[in-house]
Design goal:
Oligomer: single chain
Radius of gyration: 22 Å
Order of helices and strands: HHEEEEEH
Strand order of the largest sheet: 1-2-3-4-5
Structural class: alpha+beta
Strand content: 15-25%
Shape: elongated
Number of helices: 3
Length: 118
């Protein structure tokens, strides 16, 4: 096979692979994009026993530098931040940041205040 034919074959194969990968279905079950209010209430009930694994099924943005800081989207446009020095130990701080930037610890009382729960 000449160099020209090898090049054409390689380019054709690359083109076919690109087309096939673009046609793949991405409907696999992955992490949830946000934490619903019901899920947030369930998490808050665990209180100080919450650990990093409790949040594995949710997608997050890693915003830490030197510390582990994970930012999760939650229902209502708010965010949940979790901070800690190690993933081996429970998080040191778990709090909600509302749309105005106010930080509230993840507790039943703060959820009721934030979401006007009765």
């Amino acid at each position: 096979m000449t160099l020209s034919k090898c090049f054409k074959f390689s380019m054709t194969l690359l083109f076919v692979l690109i087309i096939c990968s673009a046609c793949q279905s991405n409907s696999e079950e992955g992490p949830s994009d946000y934490i619903s209010l019901d899920e947030l209430k369930s998490l808050s009930e665990k209180g100080v026993s919450l650990n990093w694994d409790d949040f594995n099924k949710y997608s997050f943005e890693d915003i830490g530098s030197g510390l582990y800081i994970r930012k999760y989207k939650i229902e209502g446009g708010h965010q949940l931040l979790i901070r800690g020095k190690s993933l081996e130990n429970p998080p040191e701080q778990i709090f909600i940041v509302d749309e105005n930037g106010k930080e509230l610890d993840l507790t039943q009382d703060n959820l009721s205040e934030l979401y006007d729960l009765k």
